[in-house]
Amino acid sequence: MSHHISKALMEVEVKLRLPDAAAHGQVTALLAPFLLGTHRQENLFFDGSKSELSARRAVLRLRFSDRSPLCAVTLKAKAVLVDGVSRVEEDEEELDPGMMAAESRVLRRVREEFGVLGFVGMGGFGNVRDVYDWKGLKLEVDETKYEFGTCYEIECESADPDGAKENLEEFLKENGVRYSYSKVSKFATFRAGKLP
User: Fold this and answer.
1) Low-confidence residues of the chain: pLDDT under 50
2) Fewer CB within 10 A of the terminal residue: the chain, N end or C end?
3) Burial class, 194, CB count within 10 angstroms (exposed 0-12 / middle 13-18 / buried 19+)
4) Cβ atoms of 6 and 88 closer than 8 Å
5) Pairing relationship of beta strands 85-94 and 137-146 according to DSSP bridges
6) Cα separation of 134 and 36, whole Å?
């Protein structure tokens, strides 16, 4: 059985890059009282065997986590990242690890809309995500481990990204934490094969 998390929504997130492990440590220490939990995630990416997804600026992600949802399949498309605010079309579905892929609504959509008959694995990366409830915002502080190095980032999904970004920037500046606006997504970093 599959549980629908969200359907073809525009995900809007603030993404701030932390320069190193020291800045990441500062942020997690400051936010410690607000910690909801830590998720260990493995992200695997797929394209159509004839590049049907990448040709249309889309990618299929399979994410495994040690917390619910344990497994989710996500179609991401037309990602734009400007001034630390990311906008991406996202269709996500929780998968029961025992279910057949044939039952997945998202995979059916990929086959029907994009004409994908076969999939090719592109590889992936691990991520440790600390989730916080801070000033009414859900903050995700990520430590993303690629084969070529580690990236640190704060993400915050918000209907008011500019307000959220202002609050976050004020908090980081007040506490002397160095940061910059993320310029590329985790997937783009992974595809580039080098840290931004």
Assistant:
1) 1-6
2) N
3) exposed
4) no
5) unpaired
6) 10
Q: Which two tokens stand for residue 159?
A: 């209907």
Name the token pair of 148.
């070529």
Please state, in angstroms and rounded to a whole number, the distance separating the CA atoms of residues 15 and 167: 13
Cα(102)–Cα(108) distance, rounded to whole angstroms? 7
92-116 confidence digits (pLDDT tens): 999 886 766 668 899 999 999 999 9
Residue 26 carries which side chain, given as an amino acid letter?
Q
At 96 the pLDDT is 83
Amino acid identity at 102? A
SS3 195: coil
Which residue in the block uniquely carries the two structure tokens 């059916």?
108
Q: What is the DSSP string of 75-136?
A: EEEEEEEETTEEEEEEEEEE--TTS-GGG-HHHHHHHHHH---SEEEEEEEEEEEEEEEETT
Q: How far apart are CA 50 and CA 85, in angstroms?
A: 31
